[in-house]
C-alpha cells in the first residue's frame, strides 16, 4: 500500500498534461490556468504621481523660500503632467501626475495658509508622498508563469499591467458519477434502505472551482455491465471522478471493472479517511479517480488527490498551506495511517488553537458545519496531548 506522498507523486507522474491552449479576454480568465509567461505592458505606476491630497513642491525651492510659497495651478487625477512654476507650489490630488520640477508632496493637513502664501513644515523631505514610476513593476517584467491559476487578485494585477488577453490551457472535461444502488437524489422519497446522494454534488462544484468543464454523469448502479459501459464510454474525458465501489465488498465493482478495462496505478493509500481510493488511466489521456463512497472520505480524497492532479494537468502546482496550531484537547489513536481530522481552527488572543471535532466517522457530515481545517497526523503518531503543536491545513479563510 502506498503512503500519501507516494500516491500523490504517482498521480503527478501519471498525468498526461494539457497541450491545447486558447486565448481569452481577461474577464473570462478567472480560475483558468496560464499557458504562457505574462509580462507587464506598462510601468506601474506609469508616471510619478502623488500618494496624497496636498501640495507639490520642489524641496530646494522650499528651503530657499524659507518654507513659504504661493499656490499656482493644480494637478488632478487624469491630467497630463504639468510643470511647477518657479517659486511656487502646486495643488495636487491623489493619483495626479507630479509636475516637472517638483520632488515632494506635502499633505494638506500639514500646511497653513497665510494670505496668498502657504506655510510649509520644516520637515519636508525629497520624495515624500510620491509614488515613483515603475516602483511596483516595470514594463516587460514577467508577472506570472505558465500554470498559474488566475484569482480575482491576479486579474486585478493583469488589468493594471495593461494585459487584456491571455493564453490559457483549455478546460479539462471532467465527468463525475456516483455509484450505488442505495442512492437517490434529494427531493425524492426514500424507500427503506435508500439514502440521499451527496458526493456528486460536492465533487462537481469543487472541480468547477478548479477550472474544469464538469459533466454530471448521474448515478450508476452496482452492476458490472453498467460500470463497464460507463468506463468504456469515458476515454474521451480528461478526468472521470467516481465515488463508491472501490473497497473490498462484493458490490465494490468499480475497482474490479476498472482493473479489467483501465490501467490501475494504485487503489489503496495509507490514509484515514479514504484508504480505498483508486487512480489510473483509461485509454490514452483519461485520468480515473475512484474515490470512496463515504461522504467525508470522498471530500478529503478529492482535496488530497484530485485537486493537485487538476493543477498538475494544467502545468501548475498546488500545495495547501500548512499552519502550526496548539491542540486544545488530547487525542489517542492507533498509529499506521496518515490521518486527517476535521477540526476547528481558532485565533485565541493571537495564538492559533485547534480542536478536533466530535463525530469523525467518515459517514458523518454533521461535523462539517464547524469544520474549517484539517489536522494532519503523520502515520507513526499515536495521538497528541493538549498544548502540542499540530500541523493544520486551513480549508477556509473565514469564520462562520
Ligand atoms: P462504498 O464505497 O460504495 O462501499 O460506500 C461506502 C458508504 O458510502 C456506504 O455507506 C454508501 O452508502 C455511502 N455512499 C456511497 N456513495 C455515496 C454518495 N454518492 N453519497 C452519499 N453516500 C454514499
Ligand atoms: Mg457502494
What does this structure look like?
By secondary structure, this protein is α/β, with parallel strands linked by helices. The protein has four domains: 4-18 and 170-313, MoaB/Mog-like domain (Molybdenum Cofactor Biosythetic Enzyme, Chain A, 3-Layer(aba) Sandwich), CATH 3.40.980; 21-44 and 136-169, Molybdopterin biosynthesis moea protein, domain 2 (Alpha-Beta Complex), CATH 3.90.105; 49-131, Molybdopterin biosynthesis moeA protein, domain 3 (Beta Complex); 323-394, MoeA, C-terminal, domain IV (Beta-clip, Beta Barrel), CATH 2.40.340. 18% of the residues lie in helices and 32% in strands. The protein is built from seven helices and 28 strands. It has helices at residues 4-13, 59-64, 152-160, 199-209, 224-232, 253-261, 295-313, and strands spanning 21-25, 38-39, 49-50, 54-57, 68-75, 89-92, 104-107, 112-114, 117-119, 130-131, 142-144, 165-169, 173-179, 183-184, 195-196, 213-220, 239-243, 263-268, 271-272, 276-282, 286-291, 323-327, 331-332, 338-348, 351-356, 373-377, 383-384, 389-394. The strands form eight sheets. The protein has a six-stranded mixed beta sheet with strand order 7-4-6-5-9-8. The protein has a six-stranded mixed beta sheet with strand order 16-13-17-21-20-18, with helices on both faces. Strand 8 (112-114) and strand 9 (117-119) form a beta hairpin. The radius of gyration is 30 Å and the shape is elongated. Magnesium ion is lined by residues 179-180, 222, 244-245, 251, 293. Magnesium ion binds at residues 179-180, 222, 244-245, 251, 293.
Amino acid at each position: 500500500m502506498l503512503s500519501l506522498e507516494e500516491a500523490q507523486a504517482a498521480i503527478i507522474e501519471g498525468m498526461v498534461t494539457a497541450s491545447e491552449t486558447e486565448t481569452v479576454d481577461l474577464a473570462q480568465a478567472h480560475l483558468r490556468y496560464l499557458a504562457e509567461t505574462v509580462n507587464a505592458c506598462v510601468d506601474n505606476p506609469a508616471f510619478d504621481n502623488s500618494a496624497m491630497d496636498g501640495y507639490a513642491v520642489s524641496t530646494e525651492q522650499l528651503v530657499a523660500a524659507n518654507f513659504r510659497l504661493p499656490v499656482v495651478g493644480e494637478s488632478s487625477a487624469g491630467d497630463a503632467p504639468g510643470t511647477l512654476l518657479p517659486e511656487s507650489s502646486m495643488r495636487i490630488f491623489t493619483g495626479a501626475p507630479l509636475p516637472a520640477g517638483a520632488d515632494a508632496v506635502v499633505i494638506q493637513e500639514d500646511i497653513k495658509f497665510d494670505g496668498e502664501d502657504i506655510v510649509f513644515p520644516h520637515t519636508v523631505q525629497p520624495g515624500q508622498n510620491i509614488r515613483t514610476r515603475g516602483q511596483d513593476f516595470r514594463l516587460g517584467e514577467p508577472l506570472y508563469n505558465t500554470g498559474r491559476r488566475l484569482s480575482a487578485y491576479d486579474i486585478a494585477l493583469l488589468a493594471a499591467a495593461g494585459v487584456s488577453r491571455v493564453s490559457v490551457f483549455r478546460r479539462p472535461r471532467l465527468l463525475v458519477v456516483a455509484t450505488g444502488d442505495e442512492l437517490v437524489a434529494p427531493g425524492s422519497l426514500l424507500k427503506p434502505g435508500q439514502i440521499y446522494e451527496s458526493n456528486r454534488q460536492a465533487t462537481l462544484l469543487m472541480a468547477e472551482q478548479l477550472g474544469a468543464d464538469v459533466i454530471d454523469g448521474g448515478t450508476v448502479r452496482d452492476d458490472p455491465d453498467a460500470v463497464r459501459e460507463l468506463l468504456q464510454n469515458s476515454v474521451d474525458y480528461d478526468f472521470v471522478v467516481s465515488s463508491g465501489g472501490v473497497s473490498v465488498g462484493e458490490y465494490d465493482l468499480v475497482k474490479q471493472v476498472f482493473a479489467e478495462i483501465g490501467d490501475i496505478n494504485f487503489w489503496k493509500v495509507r490514509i484515514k479517511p479514504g484508504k480505498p481510493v483508486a487512480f489510473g488511466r483509461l485509454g490514452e489521456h483519461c485520468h480515473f479517480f475512484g474515490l470512496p463512497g463515504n461522504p467525508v472520505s470522498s471530500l478529503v480524497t478529492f482535496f488530497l488527490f484530485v485537486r493537485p492532479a487538476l493543477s498538475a494537468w494544467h502545468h501548475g502546482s498546488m500545495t495547501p498551506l500548512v499552519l502550526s496550531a496548539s491542540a486544545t484537547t488530547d487525542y489517542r489513536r492507533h498509529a499506521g495511517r496518515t490521518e486527517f481530522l476535521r477540526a476547528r481552527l481558532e485565533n485565541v488572543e493571537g495564538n492559533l488553537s485547534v480542536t478536533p471535532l466530535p463525530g469523525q466517522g467518515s459517514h458523518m457530515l454533521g461535523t462539517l458545519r464547524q469544520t474549517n481545517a484539517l489536522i494532519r497526523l503523520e502515520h507513526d503518531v499515536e495521538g497528541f496531548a493538549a498544548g502540542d503543536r499540530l500541523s493544520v491545513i486551513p480549508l477556509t479563510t473565514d469564520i462562520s
